[in-house]
Amino acid sequence: MSNSSIRLQIVVRFLVLLTVLLWPFSASAETIKVTVGELNAALLSADNAADSVRSLVYERIRRQLAESGIGVRPDSLLFQERYSNELVEGGCNNTVIQHLDLNITVKNDTEFSFALSSLHDPISVGARLEADINAEGRAKQTFGIRLGSCQQIASDSFEVNADGDMALSLIATLTLNPTWPSPSTLSLRPKLEISGELLSKNIRVDVDDSVFRKLLESFLQDEVDEKFSVSAFKQQIASLQQQLDQQIVGNFNNGELTLELPAAEDAQVLALYRLLQPDARFPHSLTYLQDNWYQILAAIVADDQQTLSMILEGSVACEAGNLLQTNLPAHSLYSMASGTCEIVEPVESGQYFGDRDCQTELRYQQTNLADFCNVALNENRLGNAASFPNSLNTWTRSPGTTFDISALPLSGSQPYSLRVPYKSVDSDSGQCQLEMRIYDQTPGSSIDKPVLIAWHGGSWQNRGSGFLGVETMATHFTNAGFVVFAPFYRLIGNKDGNPECHNADFDQVLADTNDAFDWVVSNATAYGGSGKPIVFGQSAGGHLAASMAVNRWAEVKKAILFYAPLDFQDFAEQLIANPSANPAGQRILESISGSSLENIDFASPLIQSNRFPAIVSQTPELYPPMFILHGEMDSLLPYRQSVLMCDALLGDSDNSLIPLGVSLSGYKREISCGNNGSQLHLIAEGEHTLDLCIAPQLCLAGSEQSAAATEESMQKMLRFASAGPSLDQAGGGSGGGSSTWIAWLVLPVLWIRVSLYPRRLLSFSCRL
To answer: 419: exposed, middle or buried (C-beta count within 10 Å: 0-12, 13-18, 19+)?
Structure first.
């Protein structure tokens, strides 16, 4: 390959690398320009980048530039190359470049542009390169005649200098060409096209100290003009394009990358796939991908296909979430901007006040859907108080609190939310800093609000799968007047969460639960809370809430338990009796116990201390009132778990008062669990996470009538939480309830998300 072709490859490679730096500043259908000076400033500051991933990517870009011979300087980009003993012309009269140092300096004000309008449209990076060229070296000219063979007559060595400038334009265009060979297969045929034009050149050759100076200058000038001619430039572009095409074919399977997705099982999934066709536009997904471009590049550099898949899945979920939001107003804040305390609608980040006297100052920042997705889809950020510390103690309005995905439709006002650190603990991987989320309708404006603590589900192993459920329920509770505290905790295993919080044992999870409870009790008044807290949780979060209600009963006002595992021994016995019926439940039990199902030790503290019904049945009058909700069709956690607790609250140690047969006479049963107001609601068609409902036909509670019964039970749950223990006690029969469903005119994409991606953000799959 000629040296000119090498130089052109370096320039093109450099243009492709520029995408990394230009993407985060891009906007849909907009052309962004960045100068060489701005690029240099970014690369030279790589060591000081706050984001470790971004710093790593910067460093790899800088290293690759260096390997290509491109140096980064404060005022320019510099390409240097040294030639030695290169034959310029052969024959009896020949010229040899003994050594030549070539410097090509890209001017500081040279602009690079980047344009992107859609994921389905080409990604284009272009530049008009203006460069100064300087070459200095020494050459040797030999003169001879051919008498049979070359006979040397004379030789002369001389200094060679070349100075000048040139301008050229280059465009690198990347298209992914996505197609869907089948509803479950996405095929990409990436193509990178290079085009360019030599705009101008002005390079002057100067030869010193030679008797043939004029002749040599003319000869070398012709050589330069030929090497940098328009036709030679086009040939180099064509040669480089051919090499790129070969590399793409070699790196992929005949140039094609195929991604197999889980099989589509219903028309709703197929409808989502149709949304990914070329005429679709995903502005939120673009923003999400732009903000995560450094992580994407790091995954590409490391050939981490799993991370890439999760990021791309996340972009779809992020966009899908926009279809599930409902427009909720929020209470106004106050400002002293005009010198008097005035009520304002916070439309931008800044300092505000929560009270009408402008005495309680608070920081506020806007959070859009892309910002929300960047946290909720990032296992290193969700629940990690060490991530983005500048946003701690800053109120915002999380889009997660407006996802209308509950069997009880959202209404009222959107709460404000706050991230605060509540616990730090050392682990083998570093320091695990745990986060508390606080939700309040009117932060800083009033005191003596009732307190509710909400623990997320996720089989004690995941955060993302339960986080959105807590945020949606937080809106219901804050509308009922509560200030809500939602703590994160260390996780068993390493499926989810940041590495510093991985591989906890069950005792450590419970330790975090107790510490979170203590933190709320000690700090609730600072956030307007007052009185004993109510504890709430879904699935595994319901177990943690029950743990507080049973083990710290004197400090808990009430407990609200949704499809919670309450008796580990009974659960294990049911699995052993029919191990093939519930493989997911078996995996969860084995994960938290560290033992195979066959070797479970029923006498272990883990099993015995989590037999809550056996503990409660001894002195049921001690324990706070409990509202228990469970689906009779729960395939992961049998509803007998909740029945056992209701029996225990009735003082029945034999677990025989409440029949376990599935109700055939109605859509739900409401059962009183004692004189303190405790009640059990059993939804006849309800699955695990039965409170998830996208539309009347897409509810895990079952049919539309069963979903209506669940909605009625959730309304009663809110009244139970707000009222005294003797109010709204359950009866003993069955009932239904009228639905207040909002007519959905959009695709129920969250259900699709449940089917496709059980570990990510909108995942309420059947797990504890």
So the answer is: buried
Rounded-to-integer distance, Cα 308 and Cα 390, Å: 27
Torsion, Cα of 302, 305, 311, 317 (10° steps): 180
Which of the 8 DSSP states describes residue 144?
E
Which of the 8 DSSP states describes residue 263?
P
% of the chain residues with pLDDT over 70 = 64
CA distance 624 to 532: 11
Please give the residue that has the higher pLDDT: either 40 or 333: 333
Residue 496 burial by CB count (10 A; 0-12/13-18/19+): exposed, middle or buried? buried
Q: What is the torsion angle, in degrees rounded to the nearest 10, for the CA atoms of residue 41, residue 47, residue 53 and residue 59?
A: 70
Q: What is the pLDDT of residues 262-286, one digit of tens each?
A: 444 444 334 433 433 444 444 455 5
Q: Evaluate the CA torsion angle 699, 702, 708, 709 in order and state its sign.
A: negative
Instruction: State residue 370's pLDDT score.
Output: 77
Beta carbons within 8 Å of 239's beta carbon, 6+ residues apart: 1, 5
Supply the pLDDT for residue 294.
55
449 half-sphere exposure, CB direction, 13 A CA radius: 28
Interval 567-578: pLDDT, tens = 999 999 989 988
Contacts of 138 (CB under 8 A, 6+ apart): 97, 98, 99, 100, 157, 158, 159, 160
Whether the pLDDT of residue 300 is over 80: the answer is: no
Please answer whether residues 137 and 163 qualify as being in contact, where contact means their C-beta atoms are separated by less than 8 angstroms. no
pTM for this prediction: 0.64
For the chain, the structural domain boundaries read 3-257, 397-568+608-749, 569-607
For residue 154, what are its two tokens?
A: 């004379």
CATH topology of domain 397-568+608-749: Rossmann fold (3.40.50)
- Give 653-677 as a DSSP string: SS--SS--SPP-SSSEEEEE-STTS
| Type of residue numbered 576 | I
Q: What is the pLDDT of residue 323?
A: 65
Question: Can you tell me which residue has the tokens 């100075």?
Answer: 163
H/E element, 316: helix 305-322
Number of residues that this document lists for the chain: 768
Those residues whose C-beta lies under 8 Å from the C-beta of residue 16, and which sit 6 or more positions away, are 125, 172, 174, 192
C-alpha 705/C-alpha 407 separation (Å) is 11
Distance between CA atoms of 95 and 163, rounded to whole angstroms? 20
Sheet strand arrangement including 333-335? 342-344, 333-335, 350-353, 361-364
